[in-house]
Amino acid sequence: MKVIFVSRKHGGSRSIELSRWSRALLSLCCLGLPLGLAASGYIAGQESGARMLRGEAQDTTRDRVPQYTGSAVDAAPLSQRQLQAMTLNLAELEARMTRLDALGQHLTAMADLEEGEFDFSQPPALGGPLSSVLGDDFTSMHFDSALNSFESRLDNREKQLEMLESVLSTSKWQQQAALSGSPVKSGYVSSRYGWRMDPISGKRSMHTGLDFAGKAGSEIVAVASGVVTWTGRDGAYGNTVEISHGDDYVTRYAHAREILVKAGDVVRKGETIALIGSTGRTTGSHVHYEVYKNGRSVDPSSYVARTEP
């Protein structure tokens, strides 16, 4: 087989002789290419149609599923959330009840109540006939109402206990602030309150306190709870401590060898505040103890004779 090529420009021609295999390959290309394109187009059309059908089916399914399963799907999570919220509320109430029990035990100890009268370490005693009020009709509404009532009772009980603690603490402080007893742990009264012959000058003079003779270095204690208002060396008094006890009461401790507190300290009844010495105008180791009421010196003897409340 010959193939002739003609040139338009020069008008010449050229021929090519094709072998048998060349003719077969050329025929295959001329016929196969259109068939392949046609087949590819058919397949693509089929796939596009399938995709469209699947999309329409999915859209239809999505439209129908909520109408069929909406109530069941939504109800389950809602019920779970309610259960979790109720559980958290119960846990919080249980924690608050634990705090109230601890507070009750503390108040019982503070008030020195009869043993067994209030025992917050044990659950409260309860009882009564069986009731069918909480039967099948006990819904979440009833449960919420019961929780609210229980929480309200807890709030009321908490406030009452806190108020009781405040009252007991105030009463306890008032008892501790009441002047009573001796300012030394060991010693004796060497000079009383009132007019006397001054031990140094020999002249008659007013003694505004009580002198407690004791061993040098032994303890001087606060006769009541209070706040230290002044410490330092003051002429004839020597090393001195002053304590305010409220209700316009002030006590003074003089001639100390060493002061163990400072201004602003809160001290309790019986707490050591200084050591007995002989600083200032004195003939030996002792503590000069004074009591002031409304700014005026009073005889400490009646307070020393008092027993602790």
Q: Can you give me a brief rundown of this structure?
A:
Among the domains are: 2-69; 188-305, Glucose Permease (Domain IIA), CATH 2.70.70. Helix 1 crosses helix 2 (140-177). It has 309 residues and is an alpha+beta fold.
Walkthrough of the structure:
This protein has 309 residues and is α+β, with helices and mostly antiparallel strands. Among the domains are: 2-69; 188-305, Distorted Sandwich (Glucose Permease (Domain IIA)), CATH 2.70.70. The chain has helices spanning 20-111, 140-177, 301-305; strands at residues 2-6, 13-17, 188-191, 194-197, 204-207, 210-213, 219-221, 226-233, 239-246, 249-259, 266-267, 272-276, 286-293, 296-298. Strands 3, 6, 7, 8, 9, 10, 11, 12, 13 and 14 form a ten-stranded antiparallel sheet that branches. A two-stranded antiparallel ribbon has the order 1-2. Strand 1 and strand 2 form a beta hairpin. Helix 1 (20-111) packs across helix 2. The model is unreliable at 60-73 and 133-138 (pLDDT under 50).
- Relative helix content: 40-55%
CATH topology of the domain at 188-305: Glucose Permease (Domain IIA)
Number of helices: 3
* Sequence of secondary-structure elements: EEHHEEEEEEEEEEEEH
Task: Give a quick account of the main beta sheet: strands, pairing sense, barrel closure.
Answer: 10 strands, antiparallel
Annotated CATH architecture of the domain at 188-305:
Distorted Sandwich
| First-to-last CA distance | 140 Å
Spans with pLDDT under 50 lasting ≥5 residues? 60-73, 133-138
Strand residues, percent: 15-25%
What's the CATH H-level homologous superfamily of the domain at 188-305?
A: Glucose Permease (Domain IIA)
Number of strands: 14
From the spread of the alpha carbons, the general shape counts as: elongated
CATH class of the domain at 188-305: Mainly Beta
Alpha-beta content class: alpha+beta
**Mean residue pLDDT:** 74
Radius of gyration: 52 Å
